[in-house]
Each structure stands twice: as C-alpha cells, then as structure tokens.
Design goal:
Blueprint (H helix, E strand, L loop, with lengths): L2 E10 L2 E10 L8 E9 L2 H8 L15 E9 L9 E5 L14 E4 L4 E3 L6 H23 L9 E4 L4 H12 L4 E5 L5 H7 L3 E4 L15 E6 L3 H9 L1 E9 L13 H5 L3 E4 L7 H14 L2 H6 L1 E5 L3 H9 L6 E5 L2
Parallel strand pairs: 8-9, 8-11, 9-10, 11-12, 12-13, 14-15
Antiparallel strand pairs: 1-2, 3-4, 3-6, 3-15, 4-5, 5-7
This protein binds NADPH dihydro-nicotinamide-adenine-dinucleotide phosphate.
C-alpha cells in the first residue's frame, strides 16, 4: 500500500508530541474525496494547535493544517472527479478531521471548492484561510457601503497573514490604508504592500475611551480586546468595523456609545463555515483584486519538516505575511 508523510500531533502524559509519521490511505479519516495534497499553509490556528498553545485539537492523534490544495485522486462526490484541482479552507480540518499537513487527505467533498482559474495551488495556499478571511472582511466593508471615498481604513495586526493580504487588497481597490503594527521594522514591507500610513500598535492597545476623535471610515481588526475597542471608538459616523481575530485577546472592553451615537457597525467574520457560494465569490474577487506579485513578496515556502519550527515562530510574532508548505 502507498505510504505518505504526515505531520502528526499526538497526546502524551505531559501534553502533546509533534512529529512526521508515515501513514497509508487506510489511516485517513472518512470522506468522499481523496486528494493528493501539493501545498498547505500555516495559519494562526494551526500554530496554536502545533505548539499546544491553544485548545484547537478535538481528536487525537491529529494531522494539523486547516487549508490544503491538491489534485483529486478519487471521488464519489458528484461535483469532483479524478484529476480535478481543488482547495479547502476550514471546516474543522486540522482540528477534528485530518488536515493539510500531509501528502494525502480524505475529506467531505462539500468542504471543497474548485481551484479558481488564475490561481496555482501555491497561490491558493499563499492566500490560505488568512487571505481568504481578508477578502471576506473587505466584502463586508463593501456590502455596507464603505467605499474608498468614505475615508481611511485601519488594519490591525498588519504584518501578520490576514493583515498583509487585507492591505494589499484594499490598496489595489483604491482605499487609503492605515496599518497598525508592533513591528516598526516592517514599515517598508507594509508600505510596499500599499499602506499609506503606519501607526504603532501601542496607540490602540491601551483601554479605549467610550468615543474618540473619528479617524477612519472602517477597520479590519485581527487583534480584538482594547485594540478593537479603540478602532471602534475612532470610527467615523456610519462606518463599519470588521472583527476577525483575537491576537491581543478575546475580550472586548468597549461601550455602546459608538453604536448608538455614531451608528457604527461591528461585523464579525467566521471563515470556517462560510457557505460555498460566498467562498467562491471571495476567491473570484481574490483573482481580480489581489496582486500576485505582492502575494509572492509576502510569502515564504517551507517543506513539511520545517512546519513545527515555523509554527513556534508564528506564535512568537516572528513570521511576516504568509507561509506555504510544499508537500512535494
Ligand atoms: P498572524 O500570527 O500571522 O498575525 C497576527 C498579528 O497580530 C501579528 O503579526 C501581530 O501583527 C499582531 N499581534 C500579535 N500579538 C499581538 C498583541 N498582543 N497585540 C496586538 N497585536 C498583536 O495571524 P493571522 O494574520 O493568520 O490571524 C490573525 C488573527 O485572525 C488571529 O487571531 C486568527 O486566529 C484570526 N483569524 C480568524 C479567522 C476567522 O475566520 N475569523 C480566520 C483567520 C484568522 P504586528 O506584528 O503587525 O503587530
């Protein structure tokens, strides 16, 4: 039987162990589509799982990797046949179902979308859940009428995966972007992606006033906690803030003032269970609205045996932009 390499997280008496193992197709979990995985990526949630810093894994042992791209090996799902190029983001893959950090995967075909024309598997994984979430956030701003003429957009956690892709998309769409980062050394990187102004994350990380001077028409927040509260308090009347992350914390020490005195809207994004049609729409927009040269400038490619080390670096805030895992 064909053997393939997989990164595996196993439970131990004092926590968990991570290592590369050889598995056979019979070891994979249930699903109606088997995929030869060519690329995956490391998202914040994958890093939490691999480092054990977050309770992400819900089935032991687990193959991490919330995203994968590859070619269908065999399928009994009506939408897919052998040889189709597909990709997957989310759906609890890498948490409750074996994920993309393996050369083979078997999944529910309803979780897949066809690899969009105009994107390679490597492009799709450079985008990954992080980049696809950025597009979902931009769609929310657009759907609520926050167009480039309405004012600036702030992006927090700017040098991370979601932040980097969000800046590149917003800049290409003509928005003036304010990037909030804790890494002053990444100012040139952020400007090259299209940020017009850089602010230090400390400007937003302390407790917020109920209302502050309006500074932007909208925001994409990857950070939560006081940062999100400050972003909301500085949003101009009828503006929209899209919350997608919790890098500073899960709490939201805010007040109702921006909502009832400025009609500011706070919208959440959950990429994991986004319906098929909206996923396809987000990827169609990524094809047209994300500059692939900028995507490549923010992406580092690594082999499977460097995933664990990179997950620790991501948790330490040392990774800039996006990582692609080449499963060769
Ligand atoms: P990254 O680790 O790539 O980026 C997170 C960034 O947040 C860091 O680069 C850093 O940016 C900033 N940051 C880290 N720690 C702090 C802190 N203590 N205070 C303020 N800022 C901090 O992660 P991703 O970009 O992939 O994900 C960002 C967030 O979005 C995560 O919380 C993730 O769980 C969430 N997420 C949610 C999704 C959804 O569907 N809702 C989907 C994907 C991600 P800098 O160095 O520029 O300051």
């Amino acid at each position: 039987m064909e053997k393939f390499n997989a990164l595996q997280i196993s439970k131990t008496d004092d926590g968990q162990a991570v290592g590369i193992v050889q598995l056979g197709l019979d070891d994979l979990m249930e699903g109606d589509v088997t995929i030869r995985v060519s690329r995956s990526t490391i998202n914040y949630k994958d890093a939490l799982a691999i480092t054990g810093k977050g309770r992400i894994v819900r089935h032991w042992p687990m193959i991490p990797g919330a995203d994968l791209a590859g070619i269908v090996e065999n399928s009994s799902h009506p939408k897919y046949k052998t040889g189709d190029a597909v990709l997957l983001n989310g759906w609890g893959v890498g948490e409750a179902h074996f994920g993309g950090h393996a050369q083979m995967a078997r999944v529910n075909g309803d979780w897949l979308i066809p690899q969009p024309d105009g994107l390679s598997a490597a492009d799709a994984m450079a985008i990954g859940t992080a980049g696809y979430t950025s597009m979902l956030c931009v769609l929310e701003l657009e759907d609520r009428g926050v167009s480039p003429d309405k004012g600036d957009i702030v992006v927090t956690g700017a040098a991370g995966g979601v932040g980097s892709v969000a800046i590149a998309i917003l800049a290409k769409l003509g928005y003036r972007v304010i990037a909030s980062t804790g890494r002053a050394s990444e100012a040139d990187y952020l400007k090259n992606l299209g940020a017009a102004e850089i602010i230090d994350r400390s400007e937003l990380s302390e407790p917020a006033r109920a209302l502050d001077k309006p500074r932007w028409a909208g925001g994409i927040d990857c950070v939560g906690s006081h940062t999100l509260a400050n972003v909301i308090a500085r949003t101009s009347p009828r503006g929209t803030v899209v919350a997608c992350g919790l890098a500073q914390g899960m709490d939201l020490p805010s007040s109702v003032a921006p909502f009832i005195l400025r009609a500011v809207a706070l919208i959440g994004v959950d990429s994991v269970t986004e319906p098929y049609e909206r996923r396809v729409r987000a990827y169609e927009r990524l094809v047209t609205d994300l500059d692939l040269e900028k995507l490549s400038a923010m992406t580092t490619t690594i082999p499977l045996d460097e995933v664990e080390k990179s997950a620790h670096a991501l948790m330490d805030g040392k990774i800039r932009g996006r990582i692609v895992v080449d499963l060769g």
